[in-house]
């Protein structure tokens, strides 16, 4: 009877892991989409913020924002010196967002790996905090869900199999060492 319950528990555990993997996998395209939207919104905002300074740099410094910042820093006017730091922050933010925009233009798998392993931490955390869970039933979400579910189930099965083999091997080894004494 206990073998029956153990078998039943194992079967339901595998189903549970598969369901969790499916639900997590379905979230991947949705999270990436929300991350891309956040990056795009911040990029548009940074583009607007930098546009006036870029226009000045285009006219007076051949488009070089670094030269504009250096000019502001070298000014005798304290207001210009303070603004140099603000402009540098805007330029740095714009550059970070430009890099993210480029990274998110790749195919879905490369984009997913970028978001998981190399995303800009500030925007990733912001997306995570404000993420709204969805259950989209489009082909991409279903494919991600099934792929992650199968991978998680397979990984857990392999780990359990390896643990059982290891325990049996150790038990067999102990038994043979006791009988040889």
Give the biggest sheet. none
Give the C-alpha Rg.
Answer: 27 Å
Low-confidence stretches: none
Tell me the fraction of residues in β-strands, as a range: under 5%
Structural class: mainly alpha
Number of beta strands: 0
Q: What would the average pLDDT be, to the nearest integer?
A: 89
Q: What is the total number of structural domains?
A: 1
Helix content: over 70%
How far the N terminus sits from the C terminus, by CA atoms, comes to 37 Å
The count of helical stretches stands at 6
The H/E string reads: HHHHHH
* Principal-axes shape call: elongated
List the helices and strands and how they pair.
Layout: H1 2-60, H2 65-74, H3 78-103, H4 108-117, H5 121-129, H6 139-180
């Amino acid at each position: 009877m206990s073998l029956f319950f153990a078998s039943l528990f194992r079967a339901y555990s595998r189903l549970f892991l598969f369901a969790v993997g499916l639900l997590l996998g379905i979230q991947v395209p949705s999270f990436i989409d929300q991350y891309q939207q956040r990056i795009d919104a911040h990029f548009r905002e940074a583009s607007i913020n930098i546009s006036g300074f870029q226009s000045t740099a285009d006219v007076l410094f051949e488009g070089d924002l670094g030269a504009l910042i250096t000019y502001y820093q070298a000014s005798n006017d304290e207001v210009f010196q303070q603004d140099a730091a603000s402009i540098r922050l805007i330029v740095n933010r714009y550059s970070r967002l430009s890099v993210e925009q480029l990274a998110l233009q790749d195919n879905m798998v490369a984009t997913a790996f970028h978001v998981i392993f190399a995303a800009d931490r500030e925007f990733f955390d912001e997306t995570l905090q404000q993420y709204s869970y969805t259950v989209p039933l489009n082909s991409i979400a279903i494919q991600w869900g099934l792929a992650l579910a199968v991978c998680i189930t397979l990984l857990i099965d392999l780990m359990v199999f390896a643990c059982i083999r290891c325990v049996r091997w150790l038990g067999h080894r102990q038994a043979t060492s006791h009988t040889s004494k």
